[in-house]
Amino acid sequence: MTSSVNAMTQGNKDDSKLIMPTGEIAQFPILDGTLGPSVIDIRSLYGSTGSFTYDPAFTSTASCESKITFIDGDKGVLLHRGYPIEQLAEQSNFLEVCYLLLEGELPTQENYKSFYDNIIQHSMVHEQIRNFYSGFRRDAHPMATMVGVVGALSAFYHDSLDIHDPRQREIASHRLIAKMPTIAAMAYKYSVGQPFVYPDNALGYAENFLHMMFSLPCEKYKVNPVTASALDKILILHADHEQNASTSTVRLAGSSGANPFACIAAGIACLWGPAHGGANEAVLNMLREIGHKDRIPEYIKKAKDKNDPFRLMGFGHRVYKNYDPRAQVLRKACHEVLNELGHKNEPLLDLAKELEKIALEDPYFVEKKLYPNVDFYSGIIFQAMGIPSSMFTVLFALARTVGWIAQWKEMIEDPQMKIGRPRQLYTGYGPRDFVPLNKR
Ligand code: CMC
């Protein structure tokens, strides 16, 4: 069965027409956004033609309307509420970006103070949450622990589970942003067998996380301001990225009316995959495995070999067909941070730069428009900060929590929200009669 889409001609120029194999013509409005490609609104397709569209990995499908983040993948542009990511990374701070993503505008000084105070108030977790950690093996991946503990929050904060109450939604959002650093640092402390460290609300958001990661009861960790400011920048760069896999997971989970803690746990589970947030850990493992510049050609060859599952980690993106703007900022930050922290001659950074140079000149990567993505340089900075590689994706989750919440909130506040329910192209058996076990 074939059909053709004619988006411009016939009748109203603002409509698209689908010519079905029967000759029947179905007409669909074209909706324009403020930026980016228009979309063909096919919501009436099934009702009018009895057919579904088929787009398994959503390569051509807009799953929602959103006002939060815009990406132009061809030009390498990323805007949050209209503000370019480069400006936010240079001039803003993570909590201000959180406010921007959630509320739609930059905060006034007064707004910022009250938002900051709210977040600070929620930085501790219920004391019994500590017990959850001891149920995990010490060698569990911290992302596995995160999925469990964040999911468990809904068992502790019953007063913020009513998704139809705007105040409860707000409290749940603030709790999640405030508690993620605490929960993440606890996952790390548990994995290394050290006691948990309580948050210190006199410290800034990134500083507090570093304090909870590295302080000991017998020795307080002195947070290096260079490290704290680099971490804050990394958090900004990871805060949101429109309808990526984990965000779409959060939206789909939330569309059933599930509570926000459960939705964010689902997002964390999705983010962990190596094709998504798990790539930052995979990049460092890959660089360590390559080990020396002389071995780069061997790995480039493997990445191009269709019979080898190996991919160059930290390269390529579904949307960016140009340099990921976040990777540009990180590449620069990487040099600054490493210099300031005294890692001037970090061999992994040299190796990464050489790998990037060779890949960007290779016809395979050029033709497929494969550029470094946000995960390519972040691991090198994390490593210089003393953060173990198993925590890299946890930091991504910590930063992305605000994006997930902002997107979840936008969806819940949309009066047209319905449960998400994709359809399928069924290719299994037709109806057949059951054969009892003794006759098979
Ligand atoms: N190394 C080698 N070849 C690649 C790579 C890579 N990193 N990425 C894509 N390709 C090839 C792929 O084999 C395919 O070739 P062909 O057309 O001949 O079959 C072509 O490029 C298109 O790739 P795709 O898998 O169809 O593209 P996608 O949009 O489905 O996948 C991606 C995007 C990010 C999953 C993929 O580029 C990838 O696996 N990259 C490595 C993992 C990574 O760095 N992930 C982090 C993504 S950014 C942060 C985030 O989202 O969390």
TrEMBL record:
- Give the catalytic activity: oxaloacetate + acetyl-CoA + H2O = citrate + CoA + H(+)
Q: Which UniProt keywords apply?
A: Transferase, Tricarboxylic acid cycle
Which domain of life does the UniProt lineage start with? Answer: Bacteria
Q: Which InterPro entries match?
A: Citrate_synth-like_lrg_a-sub, Citrate_synth-like_sm_a-sub, Citrate_synthase, Citrate_synthase_AS, Citrate_synthase_bac-typ, Citrate_synthase_sf, Citrate_synthase_typ-I
Record's keyword annotation contains Transferase:
yes
Q: Pathway, according to UniProt?
A: Carbohydrate metabolism; tricarboxylic acid cycle; isocitrate from oxaloacetate: step 1/2
The question of whether Transferase is a record keyword is answered with yes
Family stated for the protein in its record: Belongs to the citrate synthase family.
Question: What protein name is recorded for this chain?
Answer: Citrate synthase
Q: Which organism is it from?
A: Candidatus Bealeia paramacronuclearis
